[in-house]
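All the exercises in this workshop are built on plain-text protein records. A record pairs a protein's sequence with a compact description of its fold. The structure tokens are whole numbers drawn from a learned vocabulary of backbone shapes. Once this layout is familiar, the rest of the handout is easier to follow. An example says more than a description, so a record of this kind follows.
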Amino acid sequence: MVQSKLKLITAALVAGMLSTGCTFVGEHKFTGGGSMASAGGDKNAVFTFNAQNCGGEEVKGRVNYIDHSAIDFESIGGVSLNAEVDNFGFCTLTDEGIDSGVQECNCEDQYEAQFSYSSKNPAAPGDGTGFVCFFDTGEGKGNFHGAITAFNLIDGPFDGYSNVGTVNGNIQQHTCPDKSDAE
């Protein structure tokens, strides 16, 4: 029931954001990993990721994701991919974005990593792109240490795959390295 509500809320947020001028702001560094409910299947999806956008440095990171029982892809063995992060940051609505009409990101008021992926499923070879929207709920007891509010693959062999849910694992924000330390 909670996952169904989260999917409806995410769909509404994504639909509303497509007409806004969202842009990435700030310097951020995140790591995460764990599992979440499959996209309709009876097993869990598992993932790991790291993403960093620390100012003058190049955006970097990786995403690994597997959902073997995803209903729309179960007949071919599910979704399995490795990806390189292409862009990353905190996605927010800005006056500059509205004025220019440019949409840099999709996940208003959340962190977003955009990536280029390669399929690791031999039954579905190829490359594509996608994005993941997420937030960190902080340290604490229990299993809720973050949420993925959108994991969308927008082309390639897994075009149309989408998943959302709470994370049984951890999503954690880190401090970017101090630029004066690198000099």
About this structure: The chain has one domain: 2-182.
